[in-house]
Amino acid sequence: MIFAGTSCSSVARTSKGDAFAARYADFTYCGVDAVKQSNQTSCGAASLAAVMSYWGKSTSEQKILTASPPTEATGYNLGELRDHAAKSGFHAFVIGSEEGQAAATKLRDHLGKGRPVIVAWECPFGRYFQKLPVVESLDSRTISPLRGWQGVLKKHFVVVIGFSDDLQRWLVMDPAYGIVSVDRGDFVTFWRGGSFAMLLIAP
Q1: Cα-Cα end-to-end distance for the chain
Q2: How many CB atoms lie within 10 A of CB 108?
Q3: How large is the angle between the packed helices 184-193 and 100-112, nearest 10 degrees?
Q4: Which of 76, 118, 120, 114 lies closest to 203, judged by CA?
């Protein structure tokens, strides 16, 4: 298990290494590398590639898209991601029957056992995390902070990789940005939009 701090002015590309561990010293997290989505609808493939790579399977977003194209133009659903993971030799389960605190407790349990989890959520278009300009992101662009994110939301897949010791923040690998820290309230709101659904993958 890796322990990683809440003061972060940039978006990380990996949760491995001493610098990340020092910055996130009050977090419990899994060492996941960020995988950038190549288009607006490939967040599911990028998230799955990140988790499969974490478990030692050499793959990429493009390999997943080619091997198992999504049935809808809007991208994958959790069942399709589960099926691809299973075809690749993993145990894969979609979980989504519990609400709020019960779902969060189950999520923390998996993370505490070293299992990153893909979750479905609805979040704002644009940057929804922290309040400082992005210094480093997957595409190295500086992005202005989003003000008052209530409004139009998008369906999105992210990989939850950790949580703070005080349970007030979550670490997320967002394939649109990189590894970010998300406030508990926003996280729950976004996840509620995805019906608290999650995909657990393990060897």
Answers
A1: 17
A2: 17
A3: 110
A4: 114
Dump strand ranges (E) for the chain: 2-3, 27-29, 91-95, 117-124, 153-164, 169-174, 178-183, 198-202
Q: How far is CA 42 from the centre of its chain?
A: 13
The answer to which of 1-5, 73-77, 156-160, 180-184 has the lowest mean pLDDT is 1-5
| CATH 3.90.70.10 assigned to 2-202 | yes
Rounded to a whole number, what is the largest CA-CA distance in the chain? 43
Element containing residue 80 per DSSP (H, E): helix 78-87
For the chain, which residues make up each domain, given as ranges?
2-202
- Coil, strand or helix at 120: strand
Please report the pLDDT score of residue 13 as a whole number: 72
Residue 133 reports pLDDT greater than 80: no
CA distances from 115 to 70, 108, 112 (A): 25, 9, 7
Assess whether pLDDT exceeds 80 at residue 137: no
- Among 7-16, 108-117, 130-139, name the most confident range: 108-117
Would you say 158 and 117 are in contact if contact means Cβ atoms under 8 Å apart?
A: no
- pTM here is 0.82
